[in-house]
Design goal:
This protein has nine helices and six strands; from the N terminus they run ααααααββααββββα. The protein has about 450 residues and is mainly alpha-helical. The chain has two domains: about 5-135 and about 270-370; about 140-260. The strands form three sheets. It has a two-stranded antiparallel sheet. Strands 3-6 form a two-stranded antiparallel ribbon. A two-stranded antiparallel ribbon has the order 4-5. α1 packs parallel to α3 (about 70-175) and α2 runs antiparallel to α3 (about 70-175). The longest helix is centred in the first third of the chain and has 105 residues, at about 70-175. It is rod-shaped. The N and C termini lie far apart (about 105 Å).
């Protein structure tokens, strides 16, 4: 039969404690903690197994009737001391796991707050962008109305000024009929003159008629000239108003282009924050599952409790040893110890269920979202115009736009929660670098 000396227990204790100070150096704290926790658990498992074997052999030795030496009590005391060490290690293991869990919850709380903040900023920016495009559409409508008025004014100006030219041409034509009969003094008429000119009474009547025609023609020409000038001024005013409206639209166009970039930048920043939050949530869920899992992980709370209860069973067996009236293990004493100590595991892992639920539901995101909605509506500027000669898409070229191209649609954005990908399609560098909006007309 194997005999365990005090030296044996010292070796076992030394092996369990040594892992706490071994292999520190270049390794990171988190990795070292995981390795040490695993080593502690492996050492505890070996120690528990050895303790059980040693306790069984001590019991067998006592029950065999062999001569009992004082070393038996010494060994029992050493085993009880080792049980205390193992239980302290279990508590340290629990505290390390609980601390790690709380740190992960804190990290999740921080990243969730960041995601919520960036979402608020993005939602506000998207609303500003939506209003900006709405104002842009109104200004384009204004330009379209003034452009139509300019066309009407220009056509009227052309028509009125053409009439002015016609009145100028009418004056020499009325003189043409008397070109050969330039009569200034009717008393000086000769027979030859009378042959060339109409009768005197007709000549006088004709002079009066011509005078009336000339007067009427002059009046018409003056009126037409004034109308032409007024039509020209009206056209110039309409043209100026149209050009001013186009410049105003151009300013708004540039402003909305800037808002487009600001909004997409804000959304991309939210997307990154969302991905970080989802990574933190996945890390916490994974750690929680390892704590709850039975066997196979170095964080299992169930395994820690099972280890603790194994120590209780061995302890109660050992403390039941009694030398009076003869060396033996008192069953009643063992059962009383078990009754007092079973299920006395002092630790209760706090999973902060309410906090974690709050941090992973509703507006805090549970990371199962397929799409993200910001303002909820967006202008889709789509029409039937052809692409520009330089390849610019028609919806990026204001010259090809009409106000009816501005369509309002419900809008959400497919999101990718994995950090290896861009959160939204428009966050890709090549996509953002190629956006153009040209309003030159």
């Amino acid at each position: 039969m194997t005999r365990y000396t005090s030296l044996t227990f010292l070796v076992l204790v030394g092996g369990l404690v040594a892992v706490n100070c071994n292999e520190r150096g270049a390794k990171g704290t988190a990795l070292l903690q995981v390795e040490e926790t695993l080593k502690r658990r492996e050492a505890r498992s070996a120690t528990t197994s050895n303790l059980q074997k040693m306790a069984d052999e001590v019991v067998a030795q006592v029950q065999s009737g062999e001569q009992i030496t004082p070393e038996v009590q010494t060994n029992i005391d050493a085993m009880l001391a080792l049980i205390v060490t193992v239980r302290n290690e279990i508590n340290l293991d629990y505290q390390a796991a609980q601390t790690s869990f709380e740190e992960k919850v804190h990290t999740l709380r921080t990243s969730t707050a960041g995601a919520v903040h960036h979402y608020t900023v993005s939602k506000s920016a998207d609303a500003v962008r939506f209003d900006c495009f709405g104002a842009e559409k109104v200004l384009l409508q204004t330009w379209e109305d003034l452009s139509h008025k300019e066309q009407v004014a220009r056509a009227y100006k052309i028509k009125m000024c053409h009439i002015t030219l016609k009145t100028e041409w009418a004056v020499p034509k009325v003189h043409f009929g008397l070109k050969e009969c330039n009569v200034k003094d009717t008393d000086a008429l000769t027979a030859h003159d009378l042959q060339k000119c109409p009768p005197l009474e007709d000549l006088v009547a004709e002079r009066h008629r011509i005078k009336d025609v000339l007067t009427h023609a002059k009046t018409n020409h003056t009126s037409a000239t004034e109308t032409c000038a007024a039509a020209t001024a009206a056209w110039q005013a309409a043209k100026t108003a149209m050009e001013t409206a186009w410049d105003t639209f151009g300013i708004q166009w540039s402003h909305c282009t800037n808002e487009e970039y600001k909004t997409e930048n804000a959304m991309c920043e939210f997307g990154v924050a969302y991905q970080e939050k989802c990574a933190d949530l996945a890390d916490l869920v994974d750690f929680t599952n390892k704590v709850k899992q039975t066997k196979g992980t170095n964080h299992s709370e169930t395994d820690r409790e099972a280890e603790w209860n194994a120590m209780v069973r061995i302890k109660c067996l050992l403390v039941s040893y009694d030398t009076s009236p003869s060396p033996s293990f008192n069953e009643a004493k063992k059962n009383a110890c078990l009754a007092d100590n079973t299920n006395d595991y002092p630790n209760g892992f706090e999973f902060q269920t309410a906090n974690v639920t709050t941090l992973s539901t509703g507006t805090n995101y549970d990371c199962t979202e397929a799409t993200i909605t910001f303002h909820g509506q967006a202008y889709s500027i789509v029409g039937s115009g052809a692409d520009g000669a330089d390849g610019t898409k028609y919806y990026d070229n204001a010259y090809a736009l009409v106000s009816s191209d501005y369509k309002v649609n419900n809008k959400d954005y497919p999101v990718n929660k994995l950090m290896v990908n861009d959160p939204f399609a428009f966050c890709a560098p090549d996509t953002r670098d190629n956006v153009t909006r040209d309003h030159a007309r």
